Amino acid sequence: MNTLSSIRPREKIAERSVHALSEHELLQAIIGSGTSGYPVQRIARKVQDILKSSSDVPSYGALKSLDGVGVAMAARLSAVFELVRRRRSINDAVQHPIIKENYYIEVTAQDAVDGTLSVRKFSRDENVELITQRVCRFVLFAHASQLSIQFRYAERPNTSLLDDLRLVKTVNDGCELLGVRLVAVRRAWAKKEKILL
Q: I want to staple 144 with a disulfide (CB 3.0 to 4.6 A). Which of 37, 100, 107, 139 is the partner?
């Protein structure tokens, strides 16, 4: 049996899921195959470089100008990027919970490939299941291999330590299913910090 790192993206999707793919592998799956002299891996890396260099969706012309990218591939990539842009606009229009600066959860996720850190705040006023779903979605999009959680309070917390630990256990269980390891948990308030893990 092949290891997941040695199989092609489409087989990896079949064996694990689309969530198991890196951004580079996702682009390879969308592109499909390379052209003469330009393997799919090289084309995907060039497209990824364009995506990283700008916050805007790459234009058809910019994609078409890449070596190995023809009319059909540039059109397919443009269509995928436009679909993602539209879906993001719809999701952004949905009202997210207001995060109270005096009581929230801060999650730091480390990218499995390049080690970059992503930080996101989550409202502590929501139920445990919803917070867990939001955190798991965040670590998936961040391609995280590990994460840390910090409970932030403006002053000494009046919530139970057990409530925070229940949330940690639920988040940890969800992240373990995704292959993401929880490495640190802290409660912090008014310049004081208590390390829980």
A: 139
